[in-house]
User: Fold these one by one.
Assistant:
Number 1:
Amino acid sequence: DGGITQSPKYLFRKEGQNVTLSCEQNLNHDAMYWYRQDPGQGLRLIYYSQIVNDFQKGDIAEGYSVSREKKESFPLTVTSAQKNPTAFYLCASNRYRGNTGELFFGEGSRLTVL
Amino acid sequence: GQNIDQPTEMTATEGAIVQINCTYQTSGFNGLFWYQQHAGEAPTFLSYNVLDGLEEKGRFSSFLSRSKGYSYLLLKELQMKDSASYLCAVASGGYQKVTFGTGTKLQVIP
């Protein structure tokens, strides 16, 4: 079945370490998105990409980096520059580049910094 | 920039109707989404409005007024399982940026 796969589901890291969260989709979707959610809060946009080798900063991009080398993959790196990285991270994808339709979400990755 | 406002919390009775409002300010509006999210889970899609008017889908309906920057989600015949957060999101701009509001936590009581 088609869908979006995020890994790992749970991740622990020490302060000062970079960590990369994986997001893979086999839906043949053009657009992909990364969001961060803190307890009791809404989703905040980190980065998004409409096509391969192109991506845009969202509202809270500082301390994060992404790449889009393949249509199916949009990994997110949480760098040591991110001051408060403990959060629930959600990846999403969307079919149309020129007309936003339904966003499909992965199950999320929960990052805890010790 | 964008600004999306929703009430933080609402309480409603099982079997009743509840309306959750969302107001937004944005340039280059492309559409408005409603998502449902249970605690600890990913959001699930409820509706997507591009044009003005009411979209009905079973017990859920969503309304959009682009001129007023206003939408609402209407839930009928409330069930206990409808207790969740409801997220309003706006798509805008040529790069299809999708921005979410802070969400409305709905509690359904017997």
Number 2:
Amino acid sequence: SAVISQKPSRDICQRGTSLTIQCQVDSQVTMMFWYRQQPGQSLTLIATANQGSEATYESGFVIDKFPISRPNLTFSTLTVSNMSPEDSSIYLCSVGSGAVPAQYFGPGTRLLVL
Amino acid sequence: GENVEQHPSTLSVQEGDSAVIKCTYSDSASNYFPWYKQELGKGPQLIIDIRSNVGEKKDQRIAVTLNKTAKHFSLHITETQPEDSAVYFCAAIGSGGGADGLTFGKGTHLIIQP
């Protein structure tokens, strides 16, 4: 199994600012993903964080708004840039394998933008 | 792309009774169907999954059934307990494969009445 931690666990931010969320895994993993879960809603994949190359973004998400880093096989960051109230969500890091892509989720980062 | 419908959105059952949550999917090529449990303030937890080459899978009080012809799959929880109260999400991987092909249902809020 994999244990995932995220920092911060929650934050309240002013519009126009940026927040960087960290995801740390206790073992090396091939596949790492970032999801968004808006209040009371389901999960939407933002991007796949690729080690050593640029992240792969899903439709509706762009690198300028959600830059992602993945410097090694245990760590990734997601930045939410130039935030607006519509960015208020839970942001989740997930890891898995080819057989089970979203096998483990982190506890999430609860973001409120005022 | 894949479309996953989940019903009901809220389910209330008496402790000790059974609960059934149903999902339908649109992509006949889908071959992997996980179920997640999300407790308040936590990230989703994979609780059971099934692949398209089997019709049923059990793990203690939890079972999942798959009907490929009808393109639906269900989560069955028997002898429900208070700790089963949570939001449950189904998901399906479409023909694209990988996490970018993983589509989630909108979730079912399961309430276990004492």
